Amino acid sequence: MNTTRVISVWFVAAAGLVLMVGCKAPQEKSAALTPNAVTVKNTPYSGPKYRVAVGKFENRSPYMNGIFSDGTDKLGMQAQTNLAAHVAMSNRFVVVDRQVMEEIAKEAQISGQNQALTGAQVVLTGAVTEFGRREVGTVGLGGILQRSRTQVAYAKVTVNVVDVRTSQIVYSVQGAGEFDLTNEHVLGFGSEAGYDATLTDKVLNLAMIEVVNRLVEGLESNQWKPTAE
Q1: Residue 194 CB: number of other CB atoms within 10 A?
Q2: Which residue has the higher pLDDT, 42 or 174?
Q3: In 3-state terms, what secondary structure has residue 39?
Q4: Residue 184, domain extent
Q5: What angle do CA 70, 157, 179 make, to 5 degrees?
Q6: For the chain, how many structural domains are there in total?
Q7: CA–CA separation, 21 vs 85, rounded Å?
Q8: Which CATH number characterizes residue 53's domain?
Q9: What pLDDT is attached to residue 37?
Q10: 189-225 residue pLDDT tens
Q11: How many other C-beta atoms are found inside a 10 Å radius of the C-beta of residue 14?
Q12: 169 pLDDT exceeds 70?
C-alpha cells in the first residue's frame, strides 16, 4: 500500500469519526446534591438556646482587596450569609435577622401586625483573615503522555462572640478549609477545566462550617455564655 493510499484511508476514517461525533445527540444529566453542613445538624439538643444576631463581617485578606477591587466586600457578605445559615442549622441558637429589618417592617405594616422584636444576647462578628488560590501542575512520561492540573483554594475565618450588655468578647473561634480540583490527561485523554470560580464558594463554606462546629463545642462544654441570660 503506497503512502498516498495510506493517507487517504486515514483521512476517510478521521472524517467518519468527526461525523459520528457531530451527529451525537446532546445528553442531559442532573442530580440533587446534599450540601455540607455542621456536624450537629438534625441532632437533638436540650441545652440553652441564646438569642444570636450576626453582625459585621469583613474580608481582611488580600484576596479581592487590591487596587482593582470595585469596593464591594463580596467575600465578607458571602461569609456573613454562610455564618447565619450554619448557626441556624445547628439548632443550638435562636437567630434574629438584622439584615432585612426594613423589609420585615414593611411586611408587618402591610399585614397590620405590630412588631414585637426580640433583642439578641450576643452578636457574632468577625472576618475572613486568610484567603488564597493557586494552581499546581505536574508532568509525567515526558510531558506528552501524562499531565495534571490542580486548582487549590484555602480560607480561614475568625468569629468573635460579643456580649451585647458589656460589649466584651466572651468567646472567639477560628475555622479553616481547603478545597482542590484536579484534572488529568493520559495519552491525550482526560477532562479539560478552566478557572473554577465555585471553589471560592466551596472553601469559604467549609471554613464557616468548621468555625460553627467550634462555636457549638464551646457552647455545649460551657466555655461561654451571655452575662445576662
Answers
A1: 7
A2: 174
A3: coil
A4: 46-220
A5: 85
A6: 1
A7: 45
A8: 3.40.50.10610
A9: 85
A10: 444 445 566 788 888 999 999 999 999 999 999 999 9
A11: 10
A12: yes
